[in-house]
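Appendix B. Raw example, untouched.
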Amino acid sequence: MVHHARRWVQPAARPRPGPDPWRTPMKNACACMLAFSASIVLAGEADVVDVAVTPDNGGYHFEVTVRHADEDWKHYADRWEILAPDGTVLATRVLHHPHVNEQPFTRSLGPVAIPGNITEVRVRAHDSVHGHGGEEQRVNLPGR
């Protein structure tokens, strides 16, 4: 209330601006894009966190532990590979389903035949969105 010459006068109410017709749809679109990009960032690339190698019937048996924030059938760690030093893929272990509630997880493969001149291999994982690019492990082959 404002006092005017011995009278109390109610000030006029300021008109409230109406909603901006672009504000809500743009906020929703930005929130959706942010949520989608955050889910990709959070899942990240598949990492090989541990490898155990043992001789097995003239080849080698591999126990490989992979960590990846699997989300669903559209984004999960779908395989790991054993590579020669020159990058040649020597063996692949396909992962047939997401491991949403089992992280990290270990899967095995063997026996894997490795050429006699190779003393060390690389193990890398792959995911269905990012491909390769996560942490790899280099492993010396026992007995070589």
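End of appendix B.
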